[in-house]
């Protein structure tokens, strides 16, 4: 395994830890466990792209949540730049939540 692969994997894990500190204001579960993060891409230049969704297109935090995600990911020393792309394809559903999130919300 090349050093770059290890670096980007370790960075990916750090990014996930940061994402787990961000909560949807209406649901007491972090956005990662809620399934709002669809993908995280890290290139060799340590530029990060986060593909995420919201629980609904007219979510009250539609303006602020992606900005918070971008700023927190960018605040990591190893990250050169970060971009957040919002998508509603596929639309979010409770099926995307982790078992932990479903337990937390009494859905299991």
UniProtKB/TrEMBL annotation:
Annotated SUPFAM superfamilies: Fe-S cluster assembly (FSCA) domain-like
One Pfam family in the UniProt entry: FeS_assembly_P
Lineage top rank: taxon: Bacteria
Database matches in Gene3D superfamilies: Fe-S cluster assembly (FSCA)
InterPro entries: Fe-S_Maturation_MIP18, FSCA_dom_sf, MIP18-like
Domain MIP18 family-like: start-end pairs: 13-85
Protein name: DUF59 domain-containing protein
């Amino acid at each position: 395994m090349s050093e770059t692969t290890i670096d980007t994997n370790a960075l990916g894990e750090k990014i996930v830890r940061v994402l787990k500190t961000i909560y949807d204001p209406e649901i007491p579960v972090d956005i990662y466990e809620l399934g709002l993060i669809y993908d995280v891409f890290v290139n060799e230049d340590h530029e990060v792209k986060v593909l995420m969704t919201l629980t609904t297109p007219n979510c009250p935090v539609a303006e602020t949540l992606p900005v918070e995600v971008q700023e927190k990911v960018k605040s990591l020393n190893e990250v050169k730049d970060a971009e957040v792309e919002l998508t509603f394809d596929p639309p979010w559903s409770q099926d995307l939540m982790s078992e932990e999130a479903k337990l937390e919300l009494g859905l299991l």
